[in-house]
Structures are given as structure tokens and as C-alpha cells.
Amino acid sequence: MDNRDFGTALDMMRKAFRSGLTRSYTWRRGQLLALLRFLSECKKELSAAVFADLGKSEAETCLTEISFVAGEIRHALRHLRRWMRPACKGVPLHYLFGSAAVYPEPHGVVLIIGAWNYPLQLVLAPLVSALAAGNCAVLKPSESAPHTSALLARLAGIYLDRRAVSVVEGGVDETCALLEYRFDFIFYTGSRSGGREVMLAAARKIVPVALELGGKNPCIIDRDVNLGTAARRIVWAKFLNAGQTCLAPDYLLVHQDVEEGLLRYMYQAVIDFYGSDPALSPDYSRIVNDRHFTRLEQLVHGGNVVFGGQCDRASCYIAPTILRETGESPIMQEEIFGPLLPVLSYETIDQALAFIEERNNPLAVYLFSSCRATKNRVLHETRSGSFCCNDLLFQSAIHSLPFGGSGASGFGRYHGQAGFETFSSSRSVLFKTFFPDPGLRYPPYGPEKFSVLKSIVRFFG
Ligand code: NAD
Questions:
Q1: What is the pTM of this model?
Q2: Is 245 helix (H, G, I), strand (E, B) or coil?
Q3: 218-404: CATH class
Q4: For the chain, what are the domain ranges?
């Protein structure tokens, strides 16, 4: 779509939506299949674009972006007919005769604003939900992943129905210009500050939004676990995409008895995965841009590094870095969103829980433990968008588990059926017959009629 002419293009999409183009099962299925074909036929180009933006390996892009979105599409195709079906509801006896149901209806023309860290997944997975729910969609990929954004803009129109899907490129100014127009729903992924602006713009037009934001995800390591496995899983989840993953563990809370052992295993895992110089590893990503590099480099210099810490501005490289910190350290004040992992120790699980409770609700809480009581306590005494025990990130790979934040980490759910529901509005529908039509409901009421009505309402209500 021509950025200078949002208005005309939007009007055309709105007309397309009003014409009923996107409503049928056949159209929705066709678009999902077209998106699947796009992912399969353009795999190489997509991986190359993500590599140019983030230095992400082809394997990582395939596993965490392309295959994930393809899985979302297949899941939607399997269940779409059922999701689209109205849900029948009972009608109370005194309202007979009639039938009641909730119809999932598309919002209309929706805006999907994505972040740069998973530049494909974060616009295409919501697009799967939007198309499955029968919407037209405008995609606004992140300007911080310009190669991926340009590729999506170039190829989307070739594979998808141009009357219903378009891509707008540009930075914050273009996003703000888009927000001046009226959409029927806005789905935003990104930072809290950007989310606030999007929500303010949406509030001015009373448009519903979903905000997928970030937070500081804690990971508790109890003393009764297999430290080697825990270390490998933590290192994998933290340094995937160089730590630029919203669901990555932001910091570790380790039982003091196993802190030294865990650090040794984590050090070994970094070497096993990325070699003794991760800068040379084809599987280790780069920091997205100079601004984020500067922010992270300052945290490294102000921190208590246990291992790693090497930074190279020219190649936007920051080594996998583990630090020993306290709750007051600068690195513990904001979401890190990079390959720096602070480790804090605790003596009792109460201390660990109190530490988490004092902070904003994160996207995820992680726990490594073999103790049933500890698992129950951490599950029930913390709040977050998701919880995962003895592993990390995989809770978001299960298409039937809704994905989203809690409190300050955002609201609104997607993936699988949750995404279909987020991109639909529930319409309550009642079909009534003409008969019977008792005079009892109509005025004048009078004391006798009123008393009968009260009894009926009390009996059936
Ligand atoms: P970003 O800079 O790419 O911004 C995201 C989008 O918002 C872009 O399209 C940008 O144009 C737009 N934008 C930014 N500021 C804006 C403003 N003031 N007004 C209007 N639009 C604006 O990405 P980011 O914000 O750096 O993203 C990183 C954050 O996103 C991290 O906090 C991370 O945790 C979070 N994140 C969350 C999820 C999730 O699913 N919950 C996924 C990925 C990233």
C-alpha cells in the first residue's frame, strides 16, 4: 500500500469487508492456504531477510518463525469450521419459543503492528488469526527489521488477496499516521511506551486493542533439580536470538545451595552450544541496532560479570553473559531484552516469591523444581501471562495454549482458538417465534398483573 494514501486504500478494504468478501469459510481457508504457500515457497528469501536484520541463523528462523506460523495455519485449518460455528445457548422457559446463540463475527478492518525481534512471526501469527476470523488486515511490520518489512510488503500482495490484506512500511511517524485512521481492532506487539501511545490513539476513537508487551520474566531454580538439564534449557532459551525474546528468562533466582553448580553447568552449556568464541558461531544472533547495543553495553559495564561480557559495536555483537546481581542492581530495574542473564540467590522459597510479587506481572514465570509443594506454591502465588515448569518458551509453541501477558505485560490473547476469538466479536443472537405473545408482558400492569409477573420472574429467573 502507498504510504501517502492510507485513506483511499483503507476505504477500499472497508468496502471489500462490507461486501462480505472475507466472511465465507472458503475465502478464509483459501487465504490461509495461500499464506502457507508463501511461507513454503519463499522460505529462503524470508530466512535471508531475517538474517540481514538480526544475524539469525536459517535454522532458528525456520524453527521459531516460519515453522511456528505454518503450524498455526495448519492448526487453524483443522479447526476453522468448528470455531466459526455459532455456539447455541439455552432459552429460559418463560421466553419460549426461540433459539439463542453466540455468533463469532469478524471485527472488520484490523491493524496489526509488529515488533522487530521475531519480525515474521509477530505479524504473521496475528494475521493467521485475523484471516481465520474473517477480517481485512493492515500489517505494520517493524522498521527495526527493514529487510523483513520490505520483503513482506513486496510479497504479501502476490500471495494474499490484495483487497483484504496490505502492508504499510515505515517508522513511528508512519505508525502514528496510521493510528489517525479508524480501524475496527488494533493488535500491537512491542514496548510498553509504544503500547501506551497505541492505546491512547485507540481510546480517542473507542477502538478495542490487544497489547502484547514485555516484562522481566523470573526463573526460579530449586535445589532438588537436575542441574545439567536445567542449565542447558536456560542457556538455550536465554541466548536464542541473542536474548531478544519477550519470553526469555530475564533473571534467575537460584537456591543458594546450587548457585555455584548451576553457574558451572551454564558456562559449559554456552561453550557446547556456541563454542569458546560465540562471535564465530553461525547460530548466535546479533543485537538489532546501535541504540539497543549501547543500552546493553552500559548494563554490561555497570554489572558484575561472571563470564562473557565481550562487546563489539561494529558487528553489534554482545557475548552470552552471566552476571551476579542483587535486586537493586541497574540491570534489575528494566526488561533486559538482550544476552545478559543476572543471577540472584535465595535461601527460602518465600524470599523468591516475595521478590517476584514486588514487581510487575511478567509475561512468563519459570520454575525448575521436583517438589510438588513448591510447584503448587509458585503456580498459585505468582501472576503472569504463562507459567512453565522445568522448561522454558515451549508453553508458547503449543497452538492450543493462549498466548499473552498479564497486568503490565499486556492483555489480549492469541495463538490457536484464542487468536480466532480475539479477532472476532461475540454477537449475541436471539430468534423468536410470533407465538405465543401473552398480554402479561404489556402494560397496563396493575397490582394483579405485576404480582403474577414478579412470581414468574422469581420462579424462572
Ligand atoms: P519496535 O521498536 O519494533 O516497535 C514495535 C512497533 O511499534 C513498531 O512497528 C513501531 O513502529 C511501533 N511504535 C513504536 N513506538 C511507537 C509509538 N510511540 N507510537 C506508535 N507506534 C510506535 O519494537 P520494540 O517496541 O522495541 O519491541 C520490543 C518490546 O516488545 C520488548 O519489550 C519485548 O518484550 C516486547 N515484545 C513482546 C512480545 C509479546 O508477544 N508479548 C513479543 C515481542 C516483543
A1: 0.96
A2: coil
A3: alpha beta
A4: 6-213+411-425, 218-404
